[in-house]
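Usage

Read records sequentially. Each one opens with the input sequence:
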Amino acid sequence: MMRSWQRIYAVLLRHLYILRGSISRLVEIIYWPSIQMILWGFISRFFAVSSPGGGPSSMGTAAFGTLLGAVLLWDMLFRTQLGVTLSYLEEVWARNLGHLFVSPLRPWEWWLAMMLFSICRALIGMLPAALLAIPFYGYSIFDMGLPLLFFFLNIMFMGWWLGFLIMALLLKAGQGAETLAWALTFFLAPFCAVYYPVSSLPGWLQPVAHALPASHVFEGLRGIVLHHQFLVNEMWCSFGLNVIYMVLSMVILQIAFNSARKAGTLLQSGE
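and closes with the structure output:
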């Protein structure tokens, strides 16, 4: 077990060194979440103060907190998923997969290292944006307290299994499918009810939304901000769905990995 943790740490350290050695990567990770937070914050503030009397309405203020919190949590999901898939693509671009798997590194150790690195990437991107919201708008997502931890954990779980599914597709289809690393999560965004309740969707789409863990997280966020209630059932639904999808995604990824190794495509991957 100690040797396993040493191998996991070695893979994590490799990606941290790549990140530390590239200012452009660090700037990109911080830049986009901060810009989105600033833009959505000003838009939300405009709606918050757009009341007949010219002052902030209670509904507008609640909408401001809901939208800004949703932006930060959604970016956490996207950055976590991207942390997994980009870690894989870094190895593909460097033609390093063959070197990794002639070593004693096991697939599950590699995947765990990717999950840990994705947390680092997500925190690097999210924390500056969340901290900037305090002086810009007087809004702190950390005021939610303990429920925020449950939101983050469920969002990260969804980012991980999405990343594993995309990895499986890349192993099967090759680099031609690498645009999925950016596109798939945004494809799911309308069904995740990020900025509006699930009830706003057409009736035939609502079951699709309920089948996604993120929709329960954002419903829970609205419950905290709008009604000051922590919706425990929503968190349990999100957690249960994440466990099911995580197991399925790891099985699919293992099958895709075994198929690629037998076909020899791990050695052929690269630019």
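Summary fields computed downstream for this record:
- The chain has a mean pLDDT of 84.
- The chain has one domain: 2-268.
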